[in-house]
Amino acid sequence: MAKVPTAAVAASGLVGGYAVARWTKKRPLGGVALAAAGTVAAYEWNRQAGPRAATALTTAYVAAFAGSHPLAKKLGAWPAVFTVAGTVAAASWAVTRRAA
C-alpha cells in the first residue's frame, strides 16, 4: 500500500479548513474540511508510525487549530494559519520519516 504524504494532508486540512470557512462564511463547513483531513492524517499516522505517534500528532493537529486563533490576533489570520500548518507538517514529516 502506498504511503500517503501525511505532512501535506495535515497542512492542507488546516489551511483548507480555514479557507472553506472564510470563503463560504460557514464555519461548520470549514470544520468538516478540517475534520476530514485530520481523520485521514490520523489513520495514516497510525498506519505508518503506530498508535502512540498517531495520538501525539493528532493532539498536535487539534492544538494547532486551537492555537491559531490567539496567534491570529498577533500575526493576522492567514499568517497564523500558515504558521501552525507548517509546524504540524514538520512534526508529521519528522515522525513518519523516523518511523520508516
Task: Provide an overview of this structure.
It is built from 4 helices and no strands. 90% of the residues lie in helices and 0% in strands. The two termini are 14 Å apart. The radius of gyration is 13 Å and the shape is globular. It has helices spanning 6-24, 27-49, 51-75, 77-99. The chain has one domain (6-99). With 100 residues, it is an all-alpha fold. The mean pLDDT is 95. Keywords: Membrane, Transmembrane, Transmembrane helix. The chain crosses the membrane at residues 29-46, 77-96.
* Anisotropy-based shape: globular
How many strands appear in the DSSP assignment?
0
Uncertain residue ranges: none
Q: Give the H and E element order.
A: HHHH
Helix share bin: over 70%
The termini sit apart by 14 Å
Domain unit count: 1
**Major sheet characteristics:** none
Residue fraction in strands: under 5%
Which whole number gives the mean pLDDT?
95
| Contiguous helical run count | 4
What Rg, in angstroms, do the CA atoms define?
13 Å
Structural class: mainly alpha
Keywords: Membrane, Transmembrane, Transmembrane helix
Could you provide a short overview of the structure?
The chain has 100 residues and is an all-alpha fold. The chain has helices at 6-24, 27-49, 51-75, 77-99. It has four helices and no strands.
List the helices and strands and how they pair.
Layout: H1 6-24, H2 27-49, H3 51-75, H4 77-99
Helix pairs in contact: 1-2, 1-4, 2-3, 3-4
